[in-house]
Design a protein that fits this description.
With about 180 residues, the chain is of the alpha/beta class. The chain has one domain: Rossmann fold, CATH 3.40.50. The strands form two sheets. The protein has a five-stranded parallel β-sheet with strand order 3-2-4-5-6, with helices on both faces. The chain has a three-stranded antiparallel β-sheet with strand order 1-8-7. β4, α4 and β5 form a beta-alpha-beta unit. α1 packs across α2.
Length: about 180
C-alpha cells in the first residue's frame, strides 16, 4: 500500500465534526432524547467528540455509547476465522430515543446494516440516524448517511484510512492505494 493523498487534516476533521454537530441539533430540533453511539473502533472517539461539540453549543451532555458489531456482520466468515468480540456499552436505554450511529467511513453499507441489527437488539428507538466522517460511495445496500463530513468518490482499489489521535496517535484522513504487482 502506498499513500496516494491526504484528504483531511486535523483542522478539516474538526470543522467537519463541528458542522455535523450543528446539523444534528438542527435536524432534531435540539438535543432531547438524543443518544450518540459510536461503532467500534473509530466511531467511538468520533461520537465522543460530537458529544463534546454539542455540549459546547447547547450546554447539554449527550449520552455516548459504543457498539461492537462483530457478531452482526453478514460477511463474518470473510473477515476472519474467529471474530474478536469487543464491548458494547450504551449508558441509557434506546427506547423512544433518537439514536445517532457514528462511524468513520461509509462504504458498502454492511457495517451500518450490522449496527442497525445490534441497536434493535437493545430496544426500539424512535428513530436511528447515521453520521459518518467520510462517505466514499460503492454502496451494496440501500443505506445513506444523514450527516456526512466529506463525500469522497473513490475507486475500488483505494482504501480510505481515518487516523485519529485517540487510536492512531495522529489525526488525518488519507487515501491508500494498492501497488500493482509488476512482474517483468
Amino acid at each position: 500500500m502506498r499513500e496516494k493523498a491526504q484528504i483531511l487534516d486535523t483542522e478539516q476533521i474538526r470543522r467537519a465534526l463541528t458542522r455535523i454537530g450543528h446539523e444534528i441539533i438542527e435536524r432534531n430540533r435540539g438535543t432531547e432524547r438524543l443518544v450518540l453511539i459510536g461503532i467500534r473502533t473509530r466511531g467511538v472517539p468520533l461520537a465522543e467528540r460530537l458529544a463534546q461539540i454539542i455540549k459546547e453549543i447547547e450546554g447539554v451532555e449527550i449520552p455516548v455509547g459504543m457498539l461492537d458489531i462483530s457478531l452482526y456482520r453478514d460477511d463474518l466468515s470473510l473477515t476472519s476465522e474467529q471474530p474478536v468480540v469487543s464491548h458494547t456499552a450504551v449508558p441509557v436505554g434506546v427506547e423512544k430515543k433518537t439514536v445517532v450511529l457514528v462511524d468513520d467511513v461509509l462504504f458498502t453499507g454492511r457495517t451500518a446494516r450490522a449496527a442497525l441489527d445490534a441497536i434493535m437488539d437493545l430496544g426500539r428507538p424512535e428513530r436511528v440516524q447515521l453520521a459518518v466522517l467520510v462517505d466514499r460511495g460503492h454502496r451494496e445496500l440501500p443505506i445513506r448517511a444523514d450527516y456526512v463530513g466529506k463525500n469522497l468518490p473513490t475507486s475500488m482499489r483505494e482504501i480510505v484510512a481515518v487516523r485519529l489521535r485517540e487510536i492512531d496517535g495522529e489525526e488525518r484522513v488519507v487515501i491508500l492505494e494498492e501497488l500493482e504487482n509488476r512482474n517483468l
